[in-house]
Amino acid sequence: MHTSGYVRNGAFDTTCQADGTWSNPVPTCEPGQCSTLTAPTNGALSPLGATSFGNTVTFTCNSGYLLYGATTSTCQAGGAWSNTVPTCRPVPCPPLANPSKGALSPLGPYAYPNQVTVTCNSGYDLDGVTPVTCQADGTWTNSVGTCRPRQCNALTAPTNGALSPAAPHNYPATVTFSCNAGHVVNGAETTKCQTDGSWSSPVPTCTQTPGQCSVLSAPTNGARTPPTGSNSFGNTITFICNSGHVLNGATTATCQTDGTWSSPVPTCTPRPCPALTTPTNGALSPPGTQTMFSVDDPDKRSAESPRNVHLPEPGYGHL
């Protein structure tokens, strides 16, 4: 008979022989043996080599790994272990958001000790660190950076011109050039900030050129010479008024390089007649274009009929 968990090592029985000796020595009872356990991947067991009945082995995982299963196992009487060897699984890290205008490689899910590379699209530069690493405590070494537009060199407006927008000048911005009145763009009117940070076209120049002025009409009660057209740079128009009217303003206007006229269109106003004075011992009524004279003496008034004087329209004839 043997105690559970122990194995007899020797003969089952022994006999007292004629010579006074036993046929077999007393056997020994030794602990039963279990199979040899191996440490879990990315982990360890302690103590090593413990395979005898009653031995207990403890399992642990390396930093950055979590133990899934029993932490201990005991060698039982039947030569079997009470628990199987556990597994050590990597500590997970939280998911990462793909940066705008960029990408992550590889894609998740992520666990210790994964490394993730952050790249930006063409024309964008990473403001941050790459790669980022999932650490043993389940956190990332750095946050995912930002992909910012690549900057092109600052542009200055051409002389006698302007550019829009003034800033910022980042990929894929387009800048438009314009020239002041009387000047034209000599070169490309637009340029684009490219993926490599260079401009697609150089800044143009603004060169002076003859321009067009607005069409001028003849003044009311007047005329212009020539009667039509003549609104290009350098053209001169002469203004006159109809008979009986007076010109107020410049008699000529010239189309200038900036597309404006040197003088505005003048006005033609009716020519006035000199004021009339009341005759001695008489009167005039009413003032205006027709006047009746009268005398103060009633006798003379009956002897001499009133005189009607028609005054011409202002600017025409004489009294």
Structure description:
The chain has 319 residues and is an all-beta fold. Among the domains are: 92-149, Complement Module, domain 1, CATH 2.10.70.10; 161-208, Complement Module, domain 1 (Ribbon), CATH 2.10.70; 222-270, Complement Module, domain 1 (Ribbon); 275-319. Helices cover 2% and strands 34% of the residues. The chain contains one helix and 27 strands. The protein has one helix at residues 298-303, and strands at 6-9, 28-31, 43-46, 56-61, 65-68, 72-74, 87-90, 92-93, 102-105, 110-111, 115-120, 124-127, 132-133, 146-149, 161-164, 174-179, 183-186, 190-192, 205-208, 222-225, 236-241, 245-248, 252-254, 267-270, 282-285, 290-295, 307-310. The strands form eleven sheets. The protein has a three-stranded antiparallel β-sheet, with no helix packed on it. A three-stranded antiparallel β-sheet has the order 9-11-13, with no helix packed on it. Strands 15-16-18 form a three-stranded antiparallel β-sheet, with no helix packed on it. A hairpin with a 4-residue loop joins β25 (282-285) and β26 (290-295). The longest helix has 6 residues, at 298-303. The protein starts with 5 loop residues before the first strand and ends in a 9-residue tail after the last strand. Mean pLDDT is 86; it is low at 290-295 and 300-319.
Q: What's the SSE blueprint?
A:
Layout: E1 6-9, E2 28-31, E3 43-46, E4 56-61, E5 65-68, E6 72-74, E7 87-90, E8 92-93, E9 102-105, E10 110-111, E11 115-120, E12 124-127, E13 132-133, E14 146-149, E15 161-164, E16 174-179, E17 183-186, E18 190-192, E19 205-208, E20 222-225, E21 236-241, E22 245-248, E23 252-254, E24 267-270, E25 282-285, E26 290-295, H1 298-303, E27 307-310
Antiparallel strand pairs: 1-2, 3-4, 4-6, 5-7, 8-10, 9-11, 11-13, 12-14, 15-16, 16-18, 17-19, 20-21, 21-23, 22-24, 25-26, 26-27
Domain Sushi: 1-31, 32-90, 91-149, 204-270
Disulfide bonds: 61-88, 120-147, 241-268
Keywords: Disulfide bond, Glycoprotein, Repeat, Sushi
